[in-house]
Amino acid sequence: MMDTPIAAMQPRRTLVLHRSSRLAPPMAVGGHGVWLVEQGGREVLDASGGAAVSCLGHQHPRIVAAIQAQAGKLCYAHTSFFTSEPAEALADELVGDAPGGLCQAYFVSGGSEAVEAALKLARQYFVEIGQTQRSHIVARRQSYHGNTLGALAAGGNAWRRAPYAPLLSPAFSHVSPAFAYREQRADEDEAGFVARLAAELEAEFQRLGPDTVAAFIAEPVVGATAGCVTAPAGYFQAVRAICDRHGALLILDEVMSGMGRTGTRHAWEQEGVAPNIQAVAKGLGGGYQPIGAVLVSERIVAAIEAGSGAFQHGHTYLAHPIACAAALEVQRVIREDRLLDNVIAMGGRLEEKLVERFGNHRHVGDIRGRGLFRAIELVADRATRDPFDPALQLNARIRKEAFARGLACYPSGGTADGRCGDHVLLAPPYIVSPAEVDLIVDRLGEAV
Ligand code: PMP
């Protein structure tokens, strides 16, 4: 059978299930650095970083070579019988120095799987130590933890949850997000805001029965549901204290905000607290292979070791050798090329340029984020912070205008439960240059 030439292929057989838009997408055929190349040759500046995964940009020669080398050596070996060199080396890279007490890694294929594993680990931990009554998970509204049923139940995105609500476990409940622009009252300062959020969380523990709560789960910097929302100072310390007081675990979902995106490998390093369980994905493999991981603290590992001896969970592709080899090389490049320095420097420049361009814009209410994880929030009225009518789909229209100008912005955009307005989110690769940062803001400016 003859191969169909690429030029003749229409993206029809994936269209309905892969895309929410009814427009036929262009075909991506290549990439280099921060640029994606379309069929026909047009180049698009990828300020979306893929899905905030492509931290090294596209077709990085070292990662391509690492994948090729591993594919020539070993592609698959069942994890019931074998471990592999790349899996062990990657675990060593991530938890070899036990950051924050996290001492073991469990590799899966993406963010949702990592969150599922984190939730089940928390539950299994309490079963192992005989606290079987601990089954509640407290999460936050306007959060995103993934699309599988457990992760979706943890998430607080009303729009995503709605069609599947009957399938979502009632073990999950939700408290207010630490979203100062939307939730902090005019008559309270930052400390007062944090105290109110802490009181609400404490009250939720009391409502459920503090000894029935297994874990609290949160994104250190909220990504796609709210647009790069950082927590106010002291918030995560207050959360950690409440979990500790009641013997519950803290799970941090760093799928989007982790692995360097905010300027430190883990976003929690900037909060002064460490989680008991952490989910990572996206930047872990840089988009070169599907991979996620759960990083787990000594206390949980020890309980499983002393108890049943194994995590009762598994996937066919866990610790896939090629995925682990790619992720290991991604992490080595980030370290050896000192790319977190560039995340901080270019993140600062991006913020500066966004403020320069949009700081006085009557429809930009907030410019926020950390590192190369930034968003602008669009408002109908700066003074009242009223959002635009969601029916306008302003963020989608801006993204479309930007794309027409050769700029890809992350496809997210608030209005999830009517509490936040539209936003445009930027998550460019860590290798972005000053000139490319300026071009991102120029093109976004034209689009807005
Ligand atoms: N958690 C967070 C914070 C995320 O941003 C995402 C993906 N956007 C996920 C979990 C789910 O990851 P995945 O899409 O790889 O399943």
TrEMBL record:
Q: Name one GO molecular function term.
A: transaminase activity
- What InterPro entries does the entry give? Aminotrans_3 (IPR005814), PyrdxlP-dep_Trfase (IPR015424), PyrdxlP-dep_Trfase_major (IPR015421), PyrdxlP-dep_Trfase_small (IPR015422)
Q: Does the keyword Transferase apply?
A: yes
Q: Which domain of life is it from?
A: Bacteria
SUPFAM superfamilies linked: PLP-dependent transferases (SSF53383)
The transmembrane residues are none
Which Pfam family is an annotated match for this chain, by its short name? Aminotran_3
User: What keyword terms does UniProt attach to this protein?
Assistant: Aminotransferase, Pyridoxal phosphate, Transferase
Show the NCBIfam families listed in the entry: PRK07483.1 (NF005685)
Assigned protein family: Belongs to the class-III pyridoxal-phosphate-dependent aminotransferase family.
State the protein's name.
Aspartate aminotransferase family protein
The species this protein belongs to is Roseomonas alba
Taxonomy, top ranks, is: Bacteria, Pseudomonadati, Pseudomonadota, Alphaproteobacteria, Acetobacterales
